[in-house]
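Loading example: each entry is read as two labelled lines plus one structure line.
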Amino acid sequence: MLIATLFLCACAATPASAPAASQAGTAAQPAQASQAHTVSLTATFSPERLGAGTTIRIGFQVSTPAGRAPSPVTDVELLLPTGLSIATSDLGLETCVPAKLESEGLAGCPPDSLMGRGSAAAEVPFGAAFVTERAPVRLFSGPLQNGHPQLLFFAEGEYPVLANIIFGALVLPAQSPFGGVLNAELPLVPSVTDGPDVALVQLTTTIGAKGITYYERVKGKTIGFHPRGILLPKSCPRGGFTFAAHMTFQDATHASAHTTVPCPRSG
Amino acid sequence: MTQQGRPTRRGIGRGIASTGAALALAAAGAHVAVAAGHAPATPIPGHAARAVSVNDTGYLRLLHASGEILSEVGPISGTLPGTASVRLDVGSESVTATFEIRVHGGGSIAGTGRAKIGSDGRYTSFAGTLSVTHGTGRFAHARGAGKLYGTIERRSDKLTVQTREGTLNY
């Protein structure tokens, strides 16, 4: 069993990465893949009601042709549709400090910094084959980086690689039809000595209030409440809410995908 | 006639007291203009220009929200007391605003603002500039430009804005 605790903040992204993320907003293409990988992207709202708070569930899955070893994802851009704003949500009323998350685990983050939950799967080299490792994921509000809001992903792997993986995703502007982009550089997770790195092949997370309780002091008492989550606009963007993902792999290949949530009914 | 308002600076909650949210209107020069070299054929009604240094503070509450848009309304006090209506488009890095202040005693001023977001957590603070573009009644000729500061309490979407360091011409 291997033990690792990794932290890579998206603030490590070079200044050039921000414009790239913005430009990516115009580059959404139907699901495609360069030679090695294909990516599928899913997104849902719950509830689906315009003008109301919702929880976004967004996820991607990486597929590799049979017989080929998956290459680790090193960079992810998740493009969010226009009309959705984390800034106008009441998610992340507190901030989780990466160093405390790294040293103390989930207990190191205040409850009011939790913004979502999900899961991840990685292909871990194990002997001559790969074993799929699944891990729960938590999403926290992180500190601003160079003026950009930041989300922190925390994945707790247990077997065969015992690893807590933390990485930050900056919330950056994007060009229409997208309203923002989550840009993350993923850390490489070593496996066996001289073996290939662990390859993330699936990540799903919510961004929203579902299953989240925050706390506040009211007249001297601590009261729990459910945040409203991400606020859907009262009118639907033309063609629905389009999400896209652009991924870069360790072997320098790229893959992209997009998906659209049809326009929900009005509130 | 120029009135010099006294700057206000109030802490409005944890984490932002030092921010001192403030909003300012600044003079944009004389309003009445005649195209150079073209004398008017008929006399133009006189307009006694005024320049007012404005320092106002507003505490607004959420009227409605839609996606990235927050619409807020509430009382504003200071040099030009009245009721402010503000529409904020909150992006990941910046806030754009349109506003209208219905001034006690009649008339209104309106304009736009743009500010960069500077904090996170429970409070979103912003700082930038604004322009007064038009008005009604006694402020029909209102023009101005200045600084814009504010905070949004994200739990309740309460908005605090202040004006500072500026003058309104009307």
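Chain B touches chain A at residues 65-70, 90-93, 116-122, 124, 154-155, 157 (CB under 8 Å).
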